[in-house]
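Hello,

I think I submitted the protoporphyrin IX containing FE job twice by accident. Can you confirm which output corresponds to this input? Input:
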Amino acid sequence: MTELLGSTWLNYLVAIVLLIISTLVFIKIHIYSHWKRRGIIQANASPPWGSIKNFVLGRTSIAEVFAEIYKQGEGHPIIGFYSFLTPALVIREPDYMKRILVRDYDHFSDRGIYSNRKIDPLSYHLFSTDGPHHKEMRYMLSPSFTGSKMRIIFETMQNCSSKLCDHLCKLVSSSGKGEKTLEIKNITNTYGVNVIASAGVGLDFNKFDEENPLAEAAMKATDPDDTLQSLRFTLAMVSPSITRLFNMRFTPKDVSDFYLDLVQKIINHRKSNNETRKDFMQLLLNMNEEIEKSNGTDTRKPLSLDEIAAQTFLFILGGHETSSAAICFLLYEMALNPDIQARLHEEIDAMDGNINYDNIKEMEYLNMVFNETLRKYPAAPTLIRLCVKDYMLPNGFLIKKGTQVMVPVYGLHWDANYFPQPDKFDPERFSPKAPTHQIQPFTFLPFGEGPRYCIGKRFGVASVKLGVTSILSKFRIELAEKTKIPMKIESKTFITNPYKGLTLKLVARDT
Ligand code: HEM
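Support: Only one job matched these inputs. Its output is below.
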């Protein structure tokens, strides 16, 4: 009897092992040959991760994964890869990018990334919505990002940047030596949140050294040390089918509850005090009022509290991390390149503190340094589009509806064919007078392109430049003993970030 039972279990075990082996063989031979059968080159893939194994296992950043796929496709206009079991495409040819992002946008109007309105209302926002809903929201939100709106908002931004400066001055002078080694990432993160919160959403949490619940909530939602949270976030972008399968949420529940409650309080406060502001939140509230007053002639549906919260939370999330990372990378490069820093100091000093929205745009060298920073460290390592209608590329390859298409920004920005010596920080590439080389269209895409390019570009550029000029007007940036060289990129976040923060030495310039 025992012998019989033993052999039954053994049979089960053998059957399971055989099943697993045959599934893996099926995946390897059949699923992972999809692109070969379609006649194009494909990236290496191993079951069950596909081509993104190193990212899923936390070994490399998503930026490096796509840069590697991009490299494997050398000499080809497109390369296929696999997100777990799903075949997707990386575009390599800049002319094709132009078609996908701009010219033939109607075939690629969606991102197709995951959001879950029901269990995670804050995930349903402009970045994650598609189709007519996205179009309507984008149309409605765009007026809040015009040059004239930015001119008004710039004053509020200046208030935040001077608070940033005060905070840094206090820290440096507390050392009694006129210099201090600081972990700068948390500080720039808080600045990033404060700028968006006060200039964009009318929340004045402009604090650095006291409790700042909004900054804490935003950082918690994007915390790279929360491995599962980071993985969920990135998988929602590059492998939505997996997140959909597990019905995941990616805003932590306590963060979501805190923010929904905060928005409710702001709305109540504005309504009961008849208060109006010039911020994004007000634009959404105004739209609701227009719809309600129209007595049904305006057929749009008023936005719910969840929808208003989701859009504004996206600005806080999308805006603070990108801007704060850009400030960090720029300061890091200044510490590594004292000559470039000295030239930037000269330009900042020449402004004599008279900086406004218009003249900061005219600061030529600052602009060159800013562009070179985003060239080396693009915030979004890849742009994502979903093919919504079959599309024939000029080489005769048919992209079928439902295929996710990636534009590998990081790969392009580090391609020596477009940016010689890509690891060299060389602002001269972007000199309007004598560029060290011609930048080919659609090879420099830090804010994306086409109808889904970054809606907050003006806002982001202004807040980064303002943060940088405020810091450099008071301090020289130097490498500290603890500064990691070369800089390692965080492997767990979708947004390109320095790994485990950034330590730099700030030296007061008037000592
Ligand atoms: C240096 C700062 C920033 C960088 C580098 C950056 C970069 C990007 C990139 C690459 C995209 C994707 C574009 C595409 O797919 O073509 C994007 C989209 C977006 N960004 Fe930014 N961003 C920055 C700041 C901001 C700020 C401050 C806000 C809000 C106030 C913002 C809001 C958004 C939104 C809402 C989208 C989605 C647009 C849509 O799908 O219609 N960004 N950003």
